[in-house]
Amino acid sequence: MILHRAAVHEPLPEALRPTLGVQLAPPVVGGVAYMSLTTGTPDLFAYALLG
Q: Is the per-residue pLDDT at 8 higher than 80?
């Protein structure tokens, strides 16, 4: 939803642009850490972090 808004709607004001990183970073960091600790194909939890 956040990326859809960034792609389709008018650009965010410059002061609010860093908030995208704050909102998107936790799932990305969690997903990378989880994938580095597990082996094999991604499981449901990895897909949830991706989604």
A: yes
